[in-house]
Write a structure and sequence with these properties.
The chain is α/β, with parallel strands linked by helices. It contains five helices and twelve strands. The chain has a single domain, classed as Rossmann fold. α1 packs across α5. The longest helix has 25 residues. 37% of the residues are buried. The structure holds cytidine-5'-monophosphate. The site of cytidine-5'-monophosphate (C5P) has 13 residues, from α3 and β9.
């Protein structure tokens, strides 16, 4: 029997705690990641879903809940080889505090400084370590959308990058560019579900092409 195609999808924000009640994070509802998982499940694929803290999770996935970027990175590395298609839809926090305080920081001083350290780039790790797998990333840009996304596609060794502007936050419809090495597809004012379907279709096309090239070589 043929093995079920497996998707590894990261979704939602990561939260990096400064003290027990404060953290830095990114704006992310996790809706795009959920839409991608729903489409893949509908098509009867296996979905390993690694999610940062959000309110709801998609049904029927193998759910792994994480909080920080380091936890997400660990779970992605552990599950990477189980997947055929890896979609990095999470809004990973770029930095984490060097020190996490055990107790709530008191409001004593008029100024405080905190030091932050860069988090690992999870999508880049997946791109650099892929073995006949398809790796997808997202790029939310406020300027030079397509050019910046194309640079990230190459720099992170991704197969697809999905670029959108910040108007996609919490909105029902959005405009996205699905960019691969030799193609660019612009989808205007469509639901996240519609865009998710197109992304899944594109990943399967590329995956089949990789498998075909493997077979004839
Ligand atoms: O933040 P940036 O625009 O570089 O994000 C592009 C892609 O890289 C996204 O898919 C995001 O999930 C991923 N990323 C990551 N780890 C980071 C930063 C971004 O996987 N530390």
């Amino acid at each position: 029997m043929q093995k079920k195609l497996t998707f590894l999808i990261s979704s939602g924000p990561t939260k990096e705690h400064i003290d027990p009640v404060r953290f830095i994070s990114n704006e992310s509802s996790g809706k795009m990641g959920s839409a991608l998982a729903d489409v893949a499940i509908m098509k009867k694929y296996r979905v390993i879903f690694i999610s940062g803290p959000v309110d709801t999770f998609p049904p029927n996935v193998e759910l792994i809940k994480v909080t920080t970027a380091l936890e997400m990175f660990k779970e992605v590395k552990l599950n990477l080889n189980k997947a055929d298609i890896i979609i990095n839809a999470a809004a990973v926090s770029d930095y984490r505090p060097v020190k996490t305080y055990k107790h709530k920081i008191k409001r004593r001083n008029s100024r405080i400084s905190l030091e932050f350290k860069r988090n690992p780039d999870i999508a880049r790790y997946c791109g650099k370590n892929k073995k006949n797998q398809v790796v997808v990333g997202f790029a939310l840009e406020t300027e030079n959308l397509v050019d910046t996304a194309r640079f990230k596609l190459k720099n992170k060794k991704l197969d697809i990058i999905v670029a959108n502007g910040k108007e996609s936050f919490n909105s029902k419809v959005t405009t996205a560019h699905i960019i691969s090495n030799n193609n660019i597809l612009e989808i205007k004012n469509k639901t996240k579900r519609f865009i998710a379907k197109r992304i899944i279709d594109e990943t399967i096309k590329i995956f089949r092409n990789i498998a075909y090239c493997q077979n004839i070589s």
